[in-house]
Write a structure and sequence with these properties.
This protein is α/β, with parallel strands linked by helices. About 55% of the residues lie in helices and about 10% in strands. The chain folds into three domains: about 90 residues, Helicase, Ruva Protein, domain 3, CATH 1.10.8; about 200 residues, Rossmann fold; about 80 residues, Orthogonal Bundle (Arc Repressor Mutant, subunit A). The longest helix has 18 residues. The chain is globular, with a radius of gyration of 24 Å.
Length: about 400
């Protein structure tokens, strides 16, 4: 069929043509904004889940909804070891200028900008983030040199300015698991102070499943400050089928029932896999309806595309020993495994294999669902490893 009309949209954070199965999270976000607008405190939100389940897509939906309500929105994909203070100053600067241009600043906006200047000079001495604001630093506020205290000063001032403007500020942070403990602690403390004062400033983040544990380790009260809704695969009987069928139906193309069953079964309802399979089967099928024969015939193309675009880029970030560790996990199955079991698979003691496991967690390839356990952050990564790296079985024997 005509690839120029193909409705499926696989990609990193690309919004699918039919966003299904995420109504609860979207409704919760609407409640969050409306409560803050009405002067009530409300928990911030961090969406958790494996790779490819649509966390970044939800952040984009949230941004659109917040902007439709005239909120100041700032987006940030956290990168490992990036200068947090510098980046935070940049984000707050954007928020302040969205609240009002400098020519229309009130005293509260000017105060927030002055504290931003203090914060910036403290954590970025060249002051580049406040270039163009033409305002003096407010001495004694936001300049203690303690990240948690200074970020709290900055958030409170920005939240007070937003309330005066009759709006709010939302920080949308992706890959939040890459924040250092001290950085996450500072964010939690700043948001906590704002929540206590019912200020319209909040954070909605997205990250891997270990985030609730990391937040709890950073601040014991984080479970009261945040909600951590988890998202995963789509329900096979409803939403996974809709994600595949509805975009095609809008363009007059149908799937036979057993073709839908085949695709949903293979993809296990994971949103990214459904988009990738849908795109390829559309391009390769000559006519509508798309049959099970057509769906099965393109499976090698789908696996080749996933291997190259989704799995390989992650496998290539590993050393040979780390890849052997992952392969040993894959041989045990897709579920979480004890560290001792995996260590035996690479002929190491648990203590010897510990640093390998830690590096893989640090690289975002594994997470710890429970003490002593590790699991893949990437759905079907076990299948990819067994399919593409079978040579490692001989090495480990």
């Amino acid at each position: 069929m005509d690839p120029r009309k193909n409705p499926f949209a696989p990609g990193a954070g690309t919004k699918p043509p039919a966003l299904v199965g995420r109504d609860d999270q979207i409704e919760s976000f609407d409640v969050l904004l409306e409560r803050l607008e009405n002067g009530y405190a409300e928990q911030s939100m961090i969406i958790t889940g494996l790779r490819g389940v649509g966390k970044t897509v939800l952040l984009e939906v949230f941004r659109e909804k917040a902007e439709a309500r005239d909120w100041a929105t700032v987006e940030w994909e956290v990168e490992k070891n990036s200068p947090f203070g510098l980046k935070m100053a940049s984000q707050v600067r954007r928020a302040i200028l969205q609240l009002a241009p400098k020519a229309r600043w009130t005293n509260r906006l000017a105060r927030a900008a002055s504290i931003l200047k203090s914060f910036t000079v403290t954590f970025n001495p060249d002051g580049a983030m406040t270039a163009g604001l033409d305002i003096d630093a407010l001495l004694g506020v936001g300049d203690s040199g303690t990240l948690s205290e200074d970020l709290t000063d900055l958030f409170v001032a920005t939240g007070e300015a937003a309330r005066e403007q009759g709006t709010g500020v939302i920080f949308l942070l992706d890959e939040i698991q890459y924040l250092q403990t001290s950085e996450l602690e500072a964010l939690i403390a700043a948001l906590h102070r704002c929540a206590r004062r019912s200020l319209p400033i909040t954070l909605v983040g997205a990250g891997l499943p270990q985030i609730p544990r990391l937040a709890g380790e950073a601040k014991s009260y984080s479970e009261r400050l945040f909600r951590f809704p988890g998202i995963g695969e789509l329900d096979a009987k409803t939403h996974a089928r809709d994600a595949l069928v509805l975009p095609a139906r809008d363009l007059g193309v149908e799937f036979e029932s057993d073709a839908i069953d085949f695709i949903v079964s293979y993809t296990q309802g994971y949103p990214y896999f459904l988009q990738e399979y849908g795109k390829i089967v559309w391009d390769e099928s000559p006519t509508s309806p798309i049959s099970r024969v057509h769906a099965a015939s393109v499976l090698p193309l789908v696996e080749a595309k996933l291997d190259e675009s989704f799995f390989r880029v992650r496998a290539e970030r590993t050393t040979e020993l780390e890849l052997r560790y992952l392969y040993a996990m894959a041989e045990l199955g897709p579920q979480a495994h004890r560290a001792s079991e995996v260590a035996r698979g690479i002929d190491r003691t648990t203590e010897q294999a510990g640093p390998i496991r830690s590096r893989l967690i640090d690289k975002g390839l594994l997470y710890t669902p429970g003490h002593g356990y590790a699991a893949f952050t990437v759905p079907q990564f076990d299948k990819y490893l067994l399919r593409r790296h079978s040579d490692l079985a001989e090495v480990q024997e």
